[in-house]
Amino acid sequence: MAELVYDETGRLLFTKEMKEEYTLLMPQMLPIHFGMMARLLEREGFRVETLNTSGKSIVDAGQKYVHNDTCYPALLVIGQLIDAIQSGKYDVHKVGLLITQTGGGCRASNYIHLLRKALIKAGLEFVPVVSVNLSGLEKNPGFRLSIPFLRKAVFAMMYGDIIVQTANQVRPYEVTPGQTDHTIEDCMSRLLEGMDRGDGLSYKSMCRNFKWIVQAFKDIPVQGAPKVRVGVVGEIYIKYSPLGNNNLEEFLLSEGAEPVVPGLTDFIIFKIYNRDVDVDLYGGLWLKQKICRIFENYVKKCQKAMIAAIQAGGFRAPGTFDDLHRLIQGYLGDGNKMGEGWLLTAEMLELIHSGTPNIVCTQPFGCLPNHIVGKGMIRKLKDDYPNSNIVAIDYDPGATKINQENRIKLMLANARALSNESAPALQPDRVPMEV
Amino acid sequence: MSLRIGIDIGSTTVKVVVLDKDNKLLFRSYERHFSKTRERACETLHSIENRFRGQAVKLVITGSAGLGVAKAAGIDFVQEVYATAAAVRQYYPDTDAVIELGGEDAKIIFFGGALEERMNGSCAGGTGAFIDQMATLMNVTVNELDALSLKHEKIYPIASRCGVFAKSDIQPILNQGGRKEDVAASIFQAVVDQTVAGLTQGRELKGKIVFLGGPLHFLYGLRERFVDTLKLDGAHAVFPEDGDCFAGIGAALCAGEYAQRPFEAFLKLLEESVDAKTTVDTMPPLFAGKEEYAAFLARHNANRPPQTDIRTYSGPAWLGIDAGSTTTKMTLINAGGGLLYTYYHSNQGNPVAIVLEQLREIYRLCGDRISIQGAAVTGYGEDLIKNAFQCDLGLVETVAHYNAAAHFNPDVDFIIDIGGQDMKCFKIRNGAVDSIMLNEACSSGCGSFIETFAKALGYNISDFSKLGLFSPRPVNLGSRCTVFMNSSVKQAQKDGASVEDISAGLSISIVKNAVYKVIRAASADDLGQHIVVQGGTFLNDAVLRAFEQELGREVTRPTIAGLMGAFGAALAARNLHLERSALLDAAALDAFSHSAKPVTCGLCTNHCSLTVNQFDGGRKFISGNRCSRPLGQEKTQLPDLMQYKYKKLRSLQGEGEGDGSRGRIGIPFGLNMYENLPFWFTFFTKLNFEVVLSPESSRKLYLKGQRTIPSDTVCYPAKLLHGHVEALVEAGVDAIWYPCMSYNNDEGIGDNHYNCPVVAYYPELLAANVPSLKQTRFLDPYVGLWRHKDFSKRMVKYMAEQFSIPAKETKEAVKAAYTAYEFYMDGIQETGQEYIDYARAHDLPIIVVCGRPYHIDPEINHGINDLITGFGFVLVTEDALSHLEGYAPRKVLNQWTFQSRMYNAARYVCTQEDMQVIQLVSFGCGTDAITTDELRDILEQGGKLYTQLKIDDISNLGAVKIRVRSLMAAMDARSLSVEKESDQRKLS
Question: Among the three residues A110, A143, A176, which one is the final residue of a domain in this structure?
Fold first, then answer.
């Protein structure tokens, strides 16, 4: 059995030995992106499991071990991890936990610390916690991510985004239920196999992959009239995680709407851009800025290729990061970076501009940045775009699904009334074909 | 066009409406459904079956509880706000806005231009249900409450955000003798404020407003409050005749677009769905059977104090009174703790009358045989009762409860008391009360919540809770604030849970609330080995059982669980060893009279809402005061660093050393300006601007900006900013300066030096939501003060662009500003040290208040500093001490400057014998969810007590007093045990 080794601050390390023996558990957020990440880690020799658990016991564990006034995502992420450890499914002395750490002025940067506190409370202080971050925060001898791996990870994110973006436009109209999800599985397998061979890890081969991914979804037979499109924005975990948002996308689909969920790429660029713009706002090393820009520009270039591929396939494509940044002028400053920062408002603007004025703005109850960039901007958006139809939904352990759904239904009723009034403006760019 | 039927199934009522082809109302009904929604709707349809049988109709369901019914029955559903809008458009086409209050929903619909609809968020709680709860609290019917409110003279401020807050505001007013009429109107005003503040979100309510929904239909007092508040005249306030079933009418109007069927076909669909059950989240039963219950009862009933017959006993006796929030409890004991007399009853909002009546009864029973040698009082009404009847001693509840618990179990190490309105738990360490946990406003509700629910479902409380004992499948209702539970119950009802299951579920919820929300325990061992449970709510066997199940351990519930406060007070009275009690004797009681009058104190800007109680013989008792000035005494003032800072900051306005020639620059006095004002004041005056500081915060100022607050869950300090900037616009300043600051100063004591997101970006929120800011120049650039040279460079550029100020001038102003800021901070540290020296010279204990710089605002802290110094402490703040400790790693990410100061101050306090910490936490502060646990850890590891005071927009100093007094009692007990120890050491 692996020996428990601590660093000089008393933090339990994830050792090389553990890498051989331990299973790393990872909370779920974006099923496709994280699923690919997990499989990439496996190929690096880790035993990894993404937790797709759901149910009351997760919230219960969260409430038991995390300060109840902490934001809901912390409660869920930590609850999901502890619930899994306590489920009896794993040898508790042979599991480690993976959690991301972003840094930044929001409470979210504290998740890893709250997780460690929770483990102590649960008598599981011997379970190592591994921070996944790009800031060089906590280091572990048994968990070193190589540069080639990071490259794979970036490409995995891009592939995740293009799959989600195109699949979302097909799923509401698919003739054979489940075919879209089936296609997603196929795409993921093919991509991962390719990556193993070293394929798909250069800009050029990524573009090639984009092409066939888009084609795969284009080939799915669709039917029916265009549905009301509903944008989903918000605090990142609640926005994406079905566990966090009570299966929001599924609910929207069942209500006959087409969910439009902006991807992760903008968020990644946003986080790099923040470091870049901090130098402009407050001063700092130009070299740091230069390095940020190189990285930033590379991801931007990838994003442009993705958008081009989506458009080439006849799908509706999201705007570029620069488009979003242009839209936010006059709303929020570049320095607004905590949580989702100005990007959240920019996403709402982009949705409105691209003919999706119906938006669900999701956030954990009492989310600090969303006071400003979410709820705080809806008034101004309504003033500037009278047809915008935004509903802010709070998520927490006490909020009931019925209450949330009722409010979303109100937004949908409004959306339908709006689309009757101004039908032409709300036509999607791509009209599904009758089969 | 055919007949159209709308069925509106709300949280408490079912409304059925039938319209003919000309939109004429053929039938309407409004009935309570007592959670049997489908059955109620079917019954109503049956009652009109003869009339409509065979006709083709279009039927649509709406309403918050209608969704499930519609789904199960396969009938079309329209969202209720949408339906309401349709009805209003039909009947009042020139309407500007609709305000609709339902059982649990509050809605505003704005017409004119783009249609906007708002519903209350998950926090705002119910309105109809809230009024029901408040009526229960005041022991009147809802109609009586309405009648009372129409005779009000004054309005008390009552928290408007969430129903549960309001309870804790109302209770002290009632207990201190406030008039019921005034309280009733204040309750309605709270509903109005809640609706206006929570739902308008920056859009003004004006023009013609239609009022809908049950409460607004039936309650004239509520109507009056709305009309008054919105300043509407008759033509602009419309109360439609069928305003209670407008959503139903709207649904019927919308039905035109949906499927047509024969009447009986719809009825059949509904009837057949009655038995359809969806899954409900359930838990194991409380008891496996009657035998298990019997054993449980036998075990608990063994904890019984000896009973002594008051009719035969002769000798000395001691009286204990617990004037609790909803109930008054009294016990009379003999020297051995034997019970001579007990009393437990709802105080019906007037504890004085109850105690008077009971004292007469006690004197009658005592005759000449028994002499009362001491009387003590505890509880919310302590001061009032003590003064009214001249009790010998008043003691804080926690100590009273500890006395009583220790009587039954000397080893007790954890006490939990759940009463009607409040929940108290605390640990016992070294014979003293430690780590008090009170339910903060949002999770209270406790016992009276079950009662309200029982009533709503048509049961009395004891029958209702007994129903749950043998429920096979208690519903899992979650463990949050009770207002949320309302919706959980609604959902369970929708899913077909039985009343038994709901009853058991509620009992379990209350327990979970206590364990996970208030105590935040991870396991039973966190609480203690010897747990004593008390309070009326634990007399409910379902709650007690749920508690034992949740902890997985047996606890002690004395048979007098509901009387423990009074019992503990009696024990304390006994321990005074008096010859004779000063308690009013029988003769004095005959002459006793009491009247209460509300007054607003005008002696300082606090404007305390005082209640002047007059007793016979010119005796007088004033309550609601924060200082001693309204009592006719001079304010005695011990050194108070909060006051020092506040005075310093308020003086920073005007032209300073400049000439003001560049214009008037407004600075809102809120949030981080409490830190940075010395910097900006010098910066701008040096540049010859006149600095106009916004007025001192007040409730009035808050209300001025209230309608532009977009997020009702943000902290009160942030909400105040709306009023501050509006006031500056009115003052006609040339520009308002309120920069965005992601980063604070770097004091080298944390891992980073951020501001919290709200502090950092609130200026941008104001710019987007306060319309009047368009009339002025609102300057909110991003600045960072911690890199002096970079800041200077950027300011030079900015001031040149904005005001064409030469670089040299700006540079000098920046330099001077940094110096001024340092000078201010040095002043705090030096003065803090002086105060500490003063305390030590005069042998006074020191309280270090840890909070944010803006917590010194009297409107935010509600005069807590006066209260603390009033108890004989010298007060210093965290920023005076944080520099005395260096950086140290923490178990949390220590990334906010203001918060880092608290950690350091706490570490310093641990090294000082005569200091204790009180942490101030604003309600809704997200970062303090992290700091509180960490601060507690630091202090407890350092052998210190941890005391937290949560503060909100409403000043309820009751809870604050309990904590401060318990802290004092704990400090006394500690020093006593230290003395004992050293005595013992000397002996050995």
Answer: A143
* Mean pLDDT to the nearest integer, A323-342: 96
Residue A354 lies in domain: 226-263+318-435
Domain count, chain A: 2
CB within 8 A of A432, min separation 6: which ones?
A173, A222, A223, A224, A225, A226
Among A33-42, A88-97, B687-696, B903-912, the least confident range: A33-42
Report the range out of A52-61, A207-216, B75-84, B295-304 with the highest average pLDDT: A207-216
Residue A5 domain flag: no
With an 8 Å Cβ cutoff, are A366 and B924 in contact?
A: yes
CATH classification at residue A246: 3.40.50
Contacts of A294 (CB under 8 A, 6+ apart): none
- Tell me the two tokens of residue B300: 């608990």
Q: Which of B961, B859, B874 lies closest to B623, judged by CA? A: B961
Which chain B residues in 912-941 lie under 8 Å from chain A, judged by CB atoms? Answer: 924, 926-930, 932-933
Statement: residue A317 has pLDDT above 60:
yes
A358: in domain: yes
Distance, C-alpha B576 to centroid of its chain: 36
Mean of pLDDT values over A208-234: 96
My answer on whether A102 and A251 are in the same domain is no
* Mean pLDDT in residue range A171-195: 94
- Give the pLDDT score at B954: 64
**Cβ–Cβ < 8 Å for A404, A395:** yes
- Distance between CA atoms of A91 and A86, rounded to whole angstroms? 10
- Residue B66 is predicted with a pLDDT of 86
User: Do residues A132 and A242 share a domain?
Assistant: no
pLDDT score, position A431? 39
What are the two backbone dihedrals, phi and then psi, of residue A142, each rounded to the nearest 5 degrees?
Answer: -90, 0
Query: Residue B718 is encoded by which pair of tokens?
Result: 């942030």
Q: Chain B, 853-892: which have a CB under 8 Å from a chain A CB?
A: 889, 891-892
A300: in domain: no
Report residue A125's pLDDT band, with 50, 70 and 90 as the boundaries.
very high
Q: How many CB pairs below 8 A link A and B?
A: 222
Q: What is the pLDDT of residues A63-72, one digit of tens each?
A: 888 887 788 9
Q: Which of A342-351, B141-150, B604-613, B930-939 comes out lowest in average pLDDT?
A: B604-613
Asked if A104 and A231 sit in the same domain, the reply is no
- Which pair of structure tokens corresponds to residue B920? 């101030």
The pLDDT tens digits for B522-554 are: 666 678 889 999 888 888 899 999 999 988 888
Q: Are strands A228-234 and A257-260 parallel, antiparallel or unpaired?
A: parallel
Residue B377 is inside which H or E element, if any? strand B370-378
pLDDT for res B887: 92
Co-location of A98 and A243 in the same domain:
no
State the Rg of chain B over Cα: 31
Checking B426-430 for CB contacts under 8 A at 24+ apart, the result is B426/B398, B426/B402, B426/B966, B427/B527, B427/B528, B428/B402, B428/B528, B430/B973, B430/B974, B430/B977
Beta-strand (E) ranges in A115-202? Answer: 129-132
Chain B nearest C-alpha distance from A294 (Å): 24
CB atoms within 10 A of CB B240: 18
Please indicate whether, in this complex, the C-beta atoms of A367 and B480 are within 8 angstroms of each other: no
Structure tokens given for A435:
């089969």
Q: A402 vs B64: CB contact, 8 Å cut-off? A: yes
Tell me which residue in B756, B757, B787 faces A282 most closely, judged by beta carbons: B787
pLDDT for B528: 83
Instruction: Give just the sign of the alpha carbon dihedral B133, B134, B140, B142.
Output: negative
Q: Test B488 with A398 for CB contact under 8 angstroms.
A: yes
Beta strands in B915-957 (DSSP E): 915-922, 946-951
Across chain A, how many H-helices and E-strands are there?
17, 8
Q: Are residues A337 and A432 in the same domain?
A: yes
